[in-house]
Amino acid sequence: MSITLFLLNKKGYESLIHILQNKNYISLIDKVITAEDKGNKEDCCNEIFELCKDHNIDVYKKDEDYIINSEFSLAIGWRWLIINAKNLIVLHDSLLPKYRGFSPLPNMLINGEEEIGATAIFANNKMDQGEIIISEKTTIVYPIKISEAIDIMSSIYVSLVLKIFSKLFRKERISHFKQNESLATYSVWRDFEDYFIDWSKDAKYIERFVDAVGYPYDGAKTYVDGKKLITIDKVEAIERYKLETPKYGKILTFENEFPIVICGENTLRIIDAKDEHGDIYKFNKLRVRLT
């Protein structure tokens, strides 16, 4: 019994660390494939590569030549098509069949889901519609940063991966069942435009959005007076201002030098913002509109 691992990002790296703590599981690994991910500042490509080298495991970058000849393959965080892989198991950042597709974890946080989790499936030729092997979930409390959620999800991934490896080592059958199509929802991919704050949304929603697209992702964006692009890293929803004529995106006032911005509902305190060069951005006037 052997397995090829396609590993990316912190979840893939953490899973590999725990696999390598068991000599029996190391013996199952045929090779590891990793890659760089420019959209994620924690792709962990180099860390995965070096860890494999330290343990004398064959490791390849995505664009190198390699042959998949193992009985199973397992993909964690992988964003590219995998061909010619037998019994391909994919770990997905949601409780399938909900949030099939792209960026499920950020979108779950933006939507304020009370539970997050991951699912292992046998891949087929349809997007995240393969039969479910196992899933795990946990309850979260807001506010929560995406980096914290990734740490939680990494622990879930480790648990799922070790259970799968245990079955493979014992040569047990990996049972699976069909997804309930009536419960299926889809999560859409993000590009640069999707990182911009929609100030017409309510303050709590925007707070979740800022937290969900922050490090290791590119961060929430907005324009100051339609000209200067800034990244907003930390905010806090404020509900005590009753507005007679709400004009979302305008600065209402300052509290301890922090601007209070009008949202579609309630207001938001901007605590931490940076300019295009990564330097701290200070708001120095009241009559400002954010778009």
TrEMBL record:
One of its GO terms (cellular component) is cytosol. Coiled coil: none annotated. InterPro entries: Formyl_trans_C, Formyl_transf_N, Formyl_transf_N_sf, Formyl_transferase-like_C_sf. Residues 193-282 form the Formyl transferase C-terminal domain. Residues 62-141 form the Formyl transferase N-terminal domain. One of its GO terms (molecular function) is methionyl-tRNA formyltransferase activity. PANTHER family: METHIONYL-TRNA FORMYLTRANSFERASE (PTHR11138), METHIONYL-TRNA FORMYLTRANSFERASE, MITOCHONDRIAL (PTHR11138:SF5). This is Formyltransferase family protein.
